[in-house]
Amino acid sequence: MTNKRTTVEDFDFHGKALDTIFDDYDVMLESAPVGHSSLYGGFTYVAKSEDIFAAEQDPETFSVAPSMMMPSMGTDTPLIPIDIDPPSHTQFRNILLPLFTPMNIAKLEPGMRETGRLLAEDFMNAAKANGGVADASKLFARPMPTIVFSRLAGYPEEDWKLFDDWVDDIIYRRTAEPEVSKAAGDALMAYFDRMLKKREEEGGDYDDLLDKVINFKVDGRFLTHAEKLSYAYLLFLAGLDTTAWGIRASLWYLAQNPDAQQLLRDNPDKIPAAVEEFLRTLSPVQAMARTALKDTEIQGQEIKAGERVVLVFGAGNRDPEIFENPNEIDIEREDNRHLAFGAGIHRCLGSNLARKELVIGLEEFLKNVPTFTATTFSEPWHGVGSLSLSIGKE
Ligand code: HEM
Questions:
Q1: Which residue has a Cα nearest atom 1 of ligand 1?
Q2: Options 3.40.50.2000, 3.90.215.10, 1.20.1440.230, 1.10.630.10; CATH of 15-391
Q3: Given ligand 1 and candidates 13, 69, 348, 352, which is best to mutate, with the most ligand atoms within 8 Å of its CB?
Q4: How much is the pLDDT for 249?
Q5: What percent of the chain clears pLDDT 90, i.e. is strictly above it?
Q6: Which of 14, 149, 230, 376 could share a disulfide with 239, CB 3.0–4.6 Å?
Q7: What is the 3-state secondary structure (H, E, C) of 60-90?
Q8: Which of 58, 227, 341 to mutate to test the pocket of ligand 1 (most atoms within 8 A of CB)?
Q9: Arithmetic mean of pLDDT, 206-216
């Protein structure tokens, strides 16, 4: 059936709007690549891959101030480094860059694999005790990145359940219940405040993200306490639900596509390419905001200085000018130049970590869990909500 619409009214990229967002993208990419939405104070969206790339490369026109997050994520202060423009941005980003190199991330692999294996075993035990059915989101997709990231960051790993509750409130309730999101944001800030002070009082020899944030200098000075808090907070929001969403969405797809599941089970070397395709088509970050610093135009549409502009990575990832059969999930797709991690100077700092977690997560799940199917086909593709899977008879 062809889509009859030619415009997208009040485009949204959060919550229930995600259920039908791919239809919106078809319309945008076909006939309305730049348009206006009155939501969240009003913004202009940009859907084409080349326009998103160009805006990402041009921070002098498209600033990340006051925030890339729209609406804000439980705090109204700019988050470091994501809401900071050059020149300060580079220095803030460079503090953590060495910890995210492929070589450094490779060192985490054994621990990551062991965590994946143990969680897959927990999933299997829960399924066996419950007629072959268990929640792969709660038992696998969510705890895996939370535990792995906490270890790297230096956040107490045993608090992972508490972390996931905060993520739910801050990220997933921010449009429907902004006051709940704000309260959770305040609680998380207070938690980090206590953690940072304790670390600074006690001292010690650490090699984690928190240590870098505490001890590295920008412009010859240490970060202020408020800057350290902001950095710790942003890392938490950037590193947890995104990767959990990616793992859950991959399992969601594989549960409904037994041939693809079997192909990856038999050929784990194909998992990295499949992960790129899941990131492209089921992107955990569908869009991020900017603010125009001067009058400009995209696709002949005028954008005025001061306007909020939303770069819709999820639409760019389905642009037919870049991808053949863009709406098809082809797990063996080559040359996958997607925008799931953004582009330009703010390109995801954690992409090497995220990729490794996604690949190892899928490897361990497929290795330890026999053929699985979705118990219901109504689970949404997006978010980190439950994903009930049924395992085949052993
Ligand atoms: C599948 C998982 C992930 C996805 C899809 C993702 C996606 C993104 C996107 C779209 C951006 C904004 C890029 C831009 O506007 O150009 C971003 C920025 C960022 N991400 Fe990720 N991310 C993921 C995982 C992670 C992880 C695991 C971490 C770290 C622990 C992380 C840390 C960051 C940071 C620090 C930034 C800000 C970089 C800057 O401003 O220079 N992300 N991410």
A1: 243
A2: 1.10.630.10
A3: 348
A4: 98
A5: 76
A6: 149
A7: CCEECCCCCCCCCCCCCCCCCCCCCCCCHHH
A8: 341
A9: 88
